[in-house]
Amino acid sequence: MTDLDALVPPHEPAEDALAFAGKVALTMVPVVGSLAAETLAHALESRQAQRQHEFNVAIARAITTTLEQFDETATIEDIVGSDEFIAAVTRAQRAAAETASQQKRERLAAAVANGGSWAPFAATEREQFTRLVEEFDALHIWMLHYFTDPAGWLQARDLYQQHANIMMGGIDGPLGSAFNVHPGVWDGPVKQAAADLDRNGLASIPLTTIMSAQGIFAPRTSSKGQRFLAFINETDSIAADAPTEL
Question: Which top-rank group of organisms is this from (predicted)?
């Protein structure tokens, strides 16, 4: 299969610069303030054009991944020629323009790639999952990854052994070691994210319950949460690192 991102026209910043230079020369701006404003406007327009190109490439790559993973019967032409695809792109472009997170832009691109009837998700799932991609931050997504296999995630980072002898306790102990910061930093955001995930049926995370070691390391991400991770093309939960900013 030919990678779709190879077909995306390249962004040419030189063309932006030439257009800007011609515009300044024609207007013969006599005031420094006006020239500064024009310069800022050009810088913003050029960067936005570059970001749009990068997002288009991300969408192309996500579509390639979707076709490889889920449905070889659909073609690139089927997808990009559909009204569903155009609607999904238009919606995602707005959200992508409003975030500085490259990770979130990649997830928005995945939502476009899985946002139509060619993908193995029900229409109601596609609508809800797309909304959640727009609403959720990195912490929400990471918690779904972590609670897919808490023990496996901790073992992969040599953090499990320090909790291996727990007889009774809460899941917040091992969870806190993943952040490596004072509980006062992560406690509030984690509680809010856990409530959001529970409300949407993606996970059930009892942060204040005392339980045995078996319960502490039990998976908490629901089957719906797993499908959401598949929707954003993130199926390797062990590899997902904890967010560095909360």
Answer: Bacteria
